[in-house]
């Protein structure tokens, strides 16, 4: 079985102060371990990491940012892999409804809006 034409990397700060791309770490259940990068062969947690997809399109290497959320990065990885597979099979790929990745809207804070009522019997 061939490996996927799309890879997921985590861009993290190196010990020297620069930035480097490191492969993301996958757990035994197939999901991405949030903000863990494979550095020197060991999984390392990096809170400042941002996920990037790496793939080739018409012979050109593409690096596309997908954010710092591991679950959204996993979905973007699967989507891009299916999209490239469809192109290789000669199928038409529909344009996305929303440009880029759809990110969930933040939930407004409920602090100060919840009233707790107590009753005495």
Alpha-beta content class: alpha+beta
The overall average pLDDT, rounded, is 82
* Sheet of most strands: 6 strands, antiparallel
Number of E-state strands? 6
Task: Describe this protein with a few key phrases.
extended; alpha+beta; single chain; about 120 residues
Q: How would you characterize this protein structure?
A:
By secondary structure, the chain is of the alpha+beta class. It has a domain at 7-88. It is 16% helix and 36% strand. It contains one helix and six strands, in the order E-E-E-E-E-E-H. A six-stranded antiparallel β-sheet has the order 4-3-2-1-5-6. The longest helix has 19 residues, at 70-88. The chain is extended.
Secondary-structure map with pairings?
Elements: E1 7-13, E2 19-26, E3 32-39, E4 42-45, E5 50-57, E6 60-67, H1 70-88
Antiparallel strand pairs: 1-2, 1-5, 2-3, 3-4, 5-6
